[in-house]
Structures are given as structure tokens and as C-alpha cells.
Specification:
- This protein has one domain (17-134).
- Helices cover 67% and strands 0% of the residues.
- It has helices at residues 10-22, 26-42, 51-68, 77-91, 107-119, 121-134.
- The longest helix has 18 residues, at 51-68.
Length: 135
């Protein structure tokens, strides 16, 4: 598959638009968190090729949860919008490659999550340092 350009992905743009609205509403953000946790438990992302997707999504969910609780406020708004958009994209059953197609359905999800992880790596690493210091 050719390199997916996230800016050209209309499904991601839709997810990003929803994310900026949802970030301001704790109830909706909690609904996204709950739906994401359910979705993660339903799909097997422990496959070696998909395990990085599962890991990054779990970090995103912890980051969002800390943000919702007001525990972690150091992440820039732009980073949080992208991270929430990535989670929403993961939840969308019909996106660039529909998720019901075995294995390949997650290739676009993986690509979007990896692009977000790379683009906001410093913010995500800062969160992980903060998160591990709590334990």
C-alpha cells in the first residue's frame, strides 16, 4: 500500500473534526474511552504486526483518561486533538479500509496511529514519563 497521507484521508479529517468537539465534553470523551476499551478487547492486536498498534492505542487511552480527569494537562491541545482523532478513527468501522476485512482492515488504522505517534512523539514520551512516575 502506498504511503497514506493523513491530510488526504477524508475519514481522518472527519475524526479530527469530531475530536476537537469531543475534547471539550468530558461525558463524550468518556464515551469514546469506554467504546475504545471495548473495541480493543474485541480485536486481537497481539499479532506481532499489530502489537505496536495495540500498545500505542493503550498509551493514547491512558493519556486521554488522565486528561479527562485533569491529572495530566501538559499535552498541547493540538496533540490531544490528534490523539483523540486517532482513537475515533480506530473506532470507525468504515474508514479507508473497512475493519471487517480480516487483518488488512487494520492497516489504515495502524498507519494513522503510527503517523500520530511519530508526529507527537515528544508529547507522548513526556506523558509516559509522567505516567510511569505515578506508579
Amino acid at each position: 500500500m502506498a504511503q497514506l497521507k493523513i491530510q488526504e484521508n477524508k475519514f481522518f479529517e472527519r475524526a479530527k473534526s469530531r475530536a476537537s468537539t469531543i475534547l471539550g465534553d468530558k461525558q463524550k470523551l468518556n464515551a469514546v474511552l469506554n467504546a475504545s476499551k471495548t473495541r480493543l478487547s474485541e480485536v486481537n492486536l497481539e499479532n506481532t504486526k499489530l502489537s505496536k498498534l495495540g500498545h500505542n492505542l493503550r498509551v493514547f487511552l491512558r493519556m486521554i483518561q488522565a486528561f479527562v480527569k485533569g491529572e495530566y494537562t501538559d499535552a498541547p491541545w493540538k496533540s490531544m486533538v490528534a490523539i483523540v482523532a486517532g482513537v475515533i478513527y480506530f473506532l470507525m468501522p468504515i474508514d479507508l479500509i473497512p475493519d471487517f476485512i480480516p487483518f488488512t482492515g487494520f492497516i489504515d488504522d495502524f498507519t494513522v496511529i503510527m503517523l500520530i505517534s511519530n508526529a507527537f512523539q515528544q508529547d507522548i514520551e513526556m506523558f509516559e514519563i509522567w505516567d510511569s512516575s505515578k506508579k
